[in-house]
Design a protein that fits this description.
Layout: H1 10-21, H2 30-46, E1 50-54, H3 60-71, E2 77-80, H4 102-112, E3 118-121, H5 126-129, E4 136-141, H6 147-157, E5 161-169, H7 177-188, E6 193-199, E7 202-207, H8 216-233, H9 241-252, H10 261-268
Parallel strand pairs: 1-2, 1-4, 2-3, 4-5
Antiparallel strand pairs: 5-7, 6-7
Helix pairs in contact: 1-2, 1-3, 2-3, 6-7, 7-8, 8-9
């Protein structure tokens, strides 16, 4: 299946996926959900590799990815999450010290009819990397948003990205140090990656070792915008007052709209 061929039915596939997932609690917007669906679908049309999701919460993104994986004949989505609410951004959901999103996650997958196309790992990503040896077509990083957490996720799984596969970080344009810093330092500065961008709060890039120089000007422009944000979040403390206003001003200068699918595919090719 050529990349352009996903246009024939992608809209109907992603509409159905969003309909199944939209009422599940989570932080993924509709535009972001449609975009990770596009990354998964395009990877299915060009490479053979697993979708690896780090951070599932209650299953909104998992259902999007699993619906796309089933339609385009990809292997089951590998969904990795300890489901213990330890991440700072999830603390306001906690109702008790031993509460967990796992039961609701399983129930949501079952209700959406995708349990059979999700390989569930109730674990931290580092628990899997020591024995991981499978090719990855799309690495979706939405776990621990600290610098250490995002770096561990990226370093552990990115060596298995196939040529023309994708990596994407959620919340790179929110007030977290990990996603934006790893994207700027380990993706945009690397000669292993080509076409890149932001959609909503997602930072994404295509793995293109040996061909990445074609996108050097694009990556340098993105890096300038990303690196302006890093000083505001590098100490991993909440932003307040004038610093928060300056952060938002710099963030507003970063292009991050949902792309036209045809134009986006042409950009990759």
């Amino acid at each position: 299946m050529a990349g352009e061929e996903i246009l024939q039915d992608f809209d109907s596939v992603i509409d159905a996926a969003w309909w199944s997932a939209k009422n599940i609690p989570g932080f993924l917007t509709e535009h972001e959900a449609r975009f990770i669906g596009l990354l998964a679908a395009y990877s299915a049309s060009t490479v053979r590799g697993h979708i690896v999701e780090i951070g599932s919460f209650k299953g909104r993104s998992t259902i999007i990815l699993a619906t796309v994986a089933r339609h385009y004949g990809l292997p089951p989505v590998v969904a990795i999450d300890p489901h213990n609410f330890n991440s700072i951004e999830l603390q306001h959901h906690r109702v008790s010290e031993d509460s967990s999103s796992f039961a609701e996650f399983q129930s949501n997958l079952k209700a959406a009819g995708v349990s059979d196309v999700v390989e569930v790992h109730r674990a931290y990503s580092a628990d899997l990397t020591a024995n991981w040896n499978r090719p990855i077509g799309f690495l979706w990083i939405d776990g621990d948003h600290s610098y250490r957490g995002a770096k561990l996720d990226f370093d552990g799984f990115s060596p298995y990205l196939v040529d023309r596969g994708f990596v994407a970080f959620h919340d790179a344009l929110h007030e977290f140090a990990g996603p934006i810093r790893v994207f700027a330092e380990d993706v945009l500065r690397s000669d292993r990656f080509g076409a890149s961008g932001f959609v909503g709060s997602i930072a994404w890039s295509q793995h293109r070792p040996g061909a990445s120089s074609r996108w050097d000007s694009m990556k340098k422009s993105l890096a300038r915008g990303a690196e302006r944000l890093i000083p505001f979040v590098s100490d991993e403390r909440p932003l307040r007052g004038p610093r928060k206003m300056l952060y938002k001003l710099n963030r507003s200068r970063v292009p991050r709209s949902l792309p036209n699918v045809s134009e986006w595919i042409a950009q990759l090719q």
